[in-house]
Design brief:
Glutaredoxin; 157 residues; four-stranded mixed beta sheet; binds FE2/S2 (inorganic) cluster; alpha+beta; Arc Repressor Mutant, subunit A
């Protein structure tokens, strides 16, 4: 925690304490940790003289920000037009049910994070799910367990 405070302080020094520094500052913190820790939020609010609830407002408004540490594997489920037409929403809902998490959350075992995303650029193989850098195309509901199990079996946290 001390390291997070120290790093956040140095980022505040870099960006300044103007209100306009808030978003670049939060982006930098997220680049550093993969999410924006509570300790950073409290310190940024204090130093920029704004209420923490306002910082949370920004963090929840922009989907690029995460409030939880990312899992070992990030599952991105495309919700672009082509994927939507081909059942991308059903795939997302199914993954959400199986993992017990919603968009932007991480499983308790910290193995998976789930993200809904716009077009992944591979519409020809819709619906598309990407896990880390690997793309799965023409995904069918009955394939999801096998896909997840590959990561469960080969990865201990
Ligand atoms: S809409 Fe899903 S990859 Fe383009």
């Amino acid at each position: 925690m001390a390291e997070i405070i120290k790093k956040t302080k140095s980022l505040i020094t870099k960006h300044g304490k103007e209100r306009s520094a808030l978003i670049p500052l939060l982006q930098n913190v997220q680049t550093e940790y993969g999410y924006v820790p509570k300790e950073s939020i409290d310190l940024i609010a204090e130093e920029l003289s704004i209420f923490p609830v306002e910082v949370y407002g920004v963090l929840t408004f922009y989907s690029q920000f995460h409030l939880n540490p990312p899992g070992k594997h990030t599952i991105r489920v495309c919700q672009g037009t082509a994927c939507h037409v081909m059942g991308g929403k059903v795939i997302l809902d199914n993954l959400s049910d199986k993992l017990g998490i919603e968009d932007g959350e991480t499983t308790e075992d910290e193995l998976f994070s789930l993200e809904r995303v716009a077009c992944l650029g591979t519409c020809g193989i819709a619906p598309v799910v990407a896990i880390d850098e690997k793309f799965y195309g023409n995904v069918k509901l009955n394939e999801i367990d096998d896909i997840l199990n590959k990561y469960r079996e080969t990865n201990e946290k």
